[in-house]
Amino acid sequence: MALLCKPGCGPATTTLSKEFMPRLSLGFKQQKFALAANPPRGFRNARLSVKAEASSNTSVVTQGISGNFAIAGINVDAGEGGLPRIKLHNKQKSECEIYLHGAVVTSWKSKGKELLHVRPDAVFDGVKPISGGIPHCFPQFGPGAIQQHGFARNVSWEVIGTSNEDDTPRVTLRLIDNEYTRGIWDYRFVVKYSVWLQGEELCTELNVKNVDEKPFSFTTALHTYFKADIGAVKVTGLNGLKCFDKDPVTKEPVEASEDRDEVTFTEFVDRVYKDAPSRLVLRNGLGDTLALENEGWNDAVLWNPFLTMKIFYRDFVCVENAKLDPVALQPRESWTAKLTISPTAE
Ligand SMILES: O=P(O)(O)OC[C@H]1O[C@@H](O)[C@H](O)[C@@H](O)[C@@H]1O
Do 321 and 221 touch, CB atoms closer than 8 A? Predict the structure, then answer.
């Protein structure tokens, strides 16, 4: 019996590709769980629910996972709300979790310490985006013609490959246009997103391909939520850059320039930096120094809502890698960007 997030009539379609087709079932407490998509009416995304099914042989189910998909260093399970989740771990004591819903990395631990933040108001209903971790903004960062931050974070992606060479567990997910996405943005595309752990580093690569017959352009970002003590956070690497400060009331961007070596968060911050360097350093105020190194993510966004989200603004900071000048792709062209986040010594 295969674990199937069954193809539905909308963006909920969450199938595991042929590479993993056989027996993607999960063994839990002598029961077999099948992840099934129950698409609501229309083309809203589906809620993925866990249904318990009688199983006479849990070990066969477990073998099915390890033989096909859950290779060494990679597990699959049902996470919050029963949503399919992939977990990577390596011998360096790095771990991360990725939900197929939105292809969002919700957890990254280095030596047991969590470095990403999932908001306490995050919902795991397979309909709304998961607020926290590393959500995708695609095909629009926003604001713009379609919904703020686009649709990639509200739909389920599919797994198309896993590997683990030299203790580097890696998963690749894919999002292909469907009726729902074309209803919002009428283009045919393939987005591939790989996540892997290399030593203590969390690495990602995003690839967008135009498989349409007409050109398209898009903007995108990795909207990373880091755990933080907001009163003590410092971001370096931005001094001298042109930036746009979004006014908390009018939401209008105001042009400014950064003149600080260390950006701190003593008030509402929603700031876009154009042409940011390939390396930024975040001191999260909790004792960790993280280097964010990228190829292809030209811009950066800093966001903390401060008192506009009174209850939980203190515990996170968003340091986002973005591509805000539209990327124009002709048919068959593609674009790639990489991000590596490393816990680093001072
Ligand atoms: O969609 P989320 O996760 O609530 O984030 C919203 C914020 O995301 C940031 O990227 C934007 O710069 C902000 O303007 C916006 O308010």
Answer: yes
pLDDT tens, position by position, 282-338: 999 999 999 999 999 999 999 999 999 999 999 999 999 999 999 999 999 999 999
User: Could you give the CA distance from residue 236 to residue 63 in angstroms, rounded to a whole number?
Assistant: 47
Tokens of 325: 């000048």
Q: Which atom of ligand 1 is nearest to the CA of 320?
A: 10
- Tell whether ligand 1 has an atom less than 6 A from the beta carbon of residue 140: no
Whole-number Å distance, alpha carbon 115 to ligand 1 midpoint, is 19
Q: Is the CB of 74 under 6 A from ligand 1?
A: no
Paired residues of 203 in beta bridges: 196, 340
> Residues 127, 64, 206, 210: is their CA dihedral positive or negative?
negative
ipTM above 0.95 for this complex: yes
37 CA distance to ligand 1 middle (Å):
28
Q: Is ligand 1 within 6 A of the CB of residue 204?
A: no
d(Cα 290, Cα 50) in Å, to the nearest integer? Answer: 36
Contact 86, 98 (CB under 8 A): yes
Measure CA of the first residue to CA of the last residue in the chain; give whole Å: 51
Q: Which residues are catalytic?
A: 223, 320
Tell how far the Cα of 316 is from the centroid of ligand 1, in angstroms.
13
Q: What is the pLDDT of residues 94-152, one digit of tens each?
A: 999 999 999 999 999 999 999 999 999 999 999 999 999 999 999 999 999 999 999 99
Q: Can you tell me the distance from the alpha carbon of 108 to that of 117, in angstroms, rounded to the nearest whole number? A: 9
Domain boundaries, the chain: 72-343
User: CATH class for domain 72-343?
Assistant: mainly beta
Pocket test for ligand 1, best of 148, 224, 319 (most atoms within 8 A of CB): 148
Query: 305 C-alpha vs ligand 1 centroid, how far in Å?
Result: 9
Separation of alpha carbons 276 and 157, rounded Å: 29
For residues 86 and 102, the answer to whether their CB atoms sit within 8 Å is: no
